[in-house]
Amino acid sequence: MFKFVMILAVVGVATALAPVSRSDDVHADVVSRSDDVRADGFDSSLHTSNGIEQAASGDVHGNIHGNFGWISPEGEHVDIKYVADENGYQPSGAWIPTPPPIPEAIARALVWLQSHPPAPEHPRHH
Q: What does R_g of the chain's alpha carbons equal in angstroms?
């Protein structure tokens, strides 16, 4: 249940921090909402009139699969999927930043270093 509350908090913060570009966003209405809490897990969903969406399913072990999204100020649909389980929170989607590729010169240097280990150091005797 703690993970569920944390995920909803993350969604709340993400939607609260999303820049508001349309004046009608402050007057957004809940178009649909569904919450089904059972002994073996839960299912929830939310859709608002300004394009904010959220859905999540959880099981008795605390594993959660879900997604949330909104419309960016540029009019693009931002969609994030996630899993929260024993391996932590794992978001995915085109909007999640990824590291740039390793430059070719650095990759070659790493290969060279792996194939040429340093000689063992011998302690100096004084």
A: 23
Q: Are 65 and 83 in contact (CB under 8 A)?
A: yes
Tell me: pLDDT of 6 over 80: no
- Domain boundaries along the sequence of the chain: 27-114
Distance CA 59, CA 89 (A): 15
- Structural contact between residues 119 and 105, judged by C-beta atoms closer than 8 angstroms: no
Identity of residue 65:
H
The dihedrals phi and psi of 19, each to the nearest 5 degrees, come to -60, 140
Question: For 64-104, how does the pLDDT look when each residue is reduced to its tens digit (9 = 90+)?
Answer: 999 999 999 999 999 999 999 999 999 999 988 888 999 99
What are the backbone dihedrals phi and psi of residue 56, each rounded to the nearest 5 degrees, phi first? -155, 150
Query: Can you give the pTM of this predicted structure?
Result: 0.59
3-state helix, strand, coil in the chain (%, to 5): 25, 35, 35
Identify each DSSP E strand in the chain by its residue range. Answer: 30-38, 41-48, 53-59, 64-71, 77-85, 88-92
